[in-house]
Amino acid sequence: MPGIDEKDREILRILRKEGRITLTELGKRVGLSPASVKNRVEKLEKLGAIKGYSAIIDPAFLDEYVQAFFELKLAIDDHTIDPILRRVAKLDEVQSLYRRSGERQILVRASFHDTDEVKAFAGRLKRLFGKNLERVEVTLIIDTFKENWVSCETGKR
């Protein structure tokens, strides 16, 4: 990416795993002063490399016991549906939203209190996409064996 160097990438790799690290500790780890780290982090935020900060919450603590994937097959998959995707992304239930290759171009992961909410959400998706939607397949998650919100390292550049 233009505008960032290897120190910036090192900062990003650490923040990806340890979002609550102090600037002082981060500076020690990358060999920079806290002020330099602060400037770099602010630059990375402005560039969009850091998209935000959040806590990873177990959905059960929010009484969201039903996790589901929605696979959507679209009649037309071009950028005319982007405004619809942006609306879907803002829905409270949605945890992740992807455009992907293959027959079912859109993948939505969402959390619910019960299966009635799952059905209502599927209906809302149908209304939002309208004639652009050919089919919705819903898969309920029965058990989670691994969920890693931190991307694995792919090696040095």
Automatic annotation (TrEMBL):
CDD domains: HTH_ARSR. It comes from the Archaea. GO terms for cellular component: cytosol. It holds the Pfam family HTH_24. Keywords: DNA-binding, Transcription, Transcription regulation. One of its GO terms (molecular function) is sequence-specific DNA binding. InterPro entries: ArsR-like_HTH, AsnC-type_HTH_dom, Dimeric_a/b-barrel, Tscrpt_reg_AsnC-like, Tscrpt_reg_AsnC/Lrp_C, Tscrpt_reg_HTH_AsnC-type_CS, WH-like_DNA-bd_sf, WH_DNA-bd_sf. Residues 4-65 form the HTH asnC-type domain. GO terms for biological process: response to amino acid. This is Lrp/AsnC family transcriptional regulator. It comes from Thermococcus aciditolerans.
